[in-house]
Amino acid sequence: MKILVTAKRVEDPESKIKVKPDGSGIVQEGLKYKINPFDEIGVEEGLRLVAKHQGEVVVVSVGGKEVQEQLRHALAMGAHRAVWVNHTGPVDQLGIAALLQKVVEKEQPDLVILGKQSIDDDQNQVGQYLAEFLGWGQATFASKVESMESEQEKNKVPAIVLSADKKSVQVIREVDNGLATVECQLPAVVTTDLRLNQPRYASLPGIMKAKSKPIEELTPAKLSVDVTPAIQVLKMSAPPARKAGIKVADVPALVEKLHNEAKVV
Amino acid sequence: MEFQLTEAQRALQDAARKYAREVVRPKAAHYDETATFPLDLLTTAWELGLLNMAIPTEYGGVGLSHLEQTLVAEELSWGCAGVATSIIANDLANLPIILHATDEQKKRLLTPFTEKLKFSSFCLTEPEAGSDVANMQTTARLDGDHYVLNGAKCFITNGGQASQYTVFASVDKGKKHKGITCFVVEGRPEGLSVSKHENKMGQRASETVSLTFEDVRVPVANRIGEEGQGFAIAMATLDNSRPLTAMFSVGIARAALEHSMEYSTQRRTFGKPIIEHQAIQFMIADMAMNTHAARMLTYESAWLLDEGKRNSLQSSYAKCFAADMAMKVATDAVQVYGGYGYIKEYPVEKLMRDAKLIQVYEGTSQVQRLVIARELFK
User: Fold this and answer.
1) Averaged confidence pLDDT in chain A
2) B68 — alpha (psi -120 to 50), left (phi > 0) or beta?
3) Is A69's CB within 8 Å of B19's CB?
4) Which residues of chain A are within 8 Å of residue B63 when distances are taken between CB atoms?
């Protein structure tokens, strides 16, 4: 089977993000970047599925030359090859989904795995748009119940299970009041939630091998996609600083404040 | 001149950093306290290819360049210098083979390390022959198609865990350093015993033992190079490994610097964080400046090796400067922490103990200065 997985380049959550004084964006100087953690979980799940059912994992990213770094990371983890859509201008979620649709039509994967959202702007839209554009079934927020670190976890039934005839996929997904199990006909779109798996580390041999794995370059023009954004970012601003808390004298005073001011009890 | 790492080099650095941060750091205090062998950490290191990173690709390894090895070394040592020493011990022991063995010997003696987790020890130092290598007392006597080894080695890293030993012994003590020869002892043959686990001040996660050789038989096929070439092989090995030990110092110093920066913004005296006192600012500025200077010296010494050039002078510059620097920076970190710095619950006193060893092993800071002076007047 063939699995297509996205690998978006995002700011490293450990770096300090500052908004530019004019609000036109964030200060990029000195920032570190990495693969979107939800996408990394997607790469891991793709590799596990392929290890069980054979086939290949193809990773795709949209952006300037620098996104090759994230593609190489996925290749170092074990993905087989990469598709790079070279585009440096502004693009919104609809544009990305339209580009991915064309890549999917070209690659014809059995399954597309995306992070449920990217940790930079947290939109949570691309997977759903893509499924709609393709007319495919979708299972969002694929997840597991228990901790990712436990030994039992490794032996547990995985959240994404292919049927014996490889014509459908069963996905356990996280919803507000618990877990839901859905079944989709293949091909399908799946998005990953945080508890799906613990991504493997890129090994040194993996990094060396990734150097020679192929990255195919495409452009919006080659894919005949107009990526003119429908959404414009007008201004960015940091959230207002939190005010200092207060101390209350005793429990009745606390209850009084919770009841009358916070109105939570 | 190029001051930028390639994308693949940054990826190697990131991989080692992730291992150091997520695997080593959480266990570092435990292994320092208990002085037990960190087998779980080394197993993960082996799985990730961090162990044996110097073995060339022809023999199944990853064959990192010297510069790339130093990138990894800084991260490992930032995690824990003792663990880093344990990890690099394999490469140190295998370097004589990588540098001087025949193709047949390399296939036979290096490849197994890439196929399963296996440890090897570099056995040069003796109770009476540390820096004074020519005074080696361990002997090798030819007996048919075997050599028979007798003698004692001390301060051997991973010696109790190893199943292969790279041993230096003299075939003729009268010839002083011209009699020294290099051998590879496979497995744990009869007559080889591990006698003493040292209770060390620092780098306690690395195992340090004494070994005794009593009529240990080594096939002639396991002699690396010719008889009498051992001294040159040992020196070439140390030229290759010095950038790594230098970079261990940088890793320790960077950890000390980061802890100090964090603590000095939290700890308040006289109504403000101590980082707002100029005395602390100056200490931290010196720590950062010297850490980076040592890193640059080390990069140069590794780069020379990658260019196929001799680096005895530059690798001694790097090792000596970096080791002395790390000792000073770690000591200053304890000073920034004040009384708490002296308490084991805080992370900096370990760094001070760990740094001290680098001024001593693989050529003391004094021997490095001798080498530097000798090279200058050559």
Assistant:
1) 92
2) alpha
3) no
4) 208
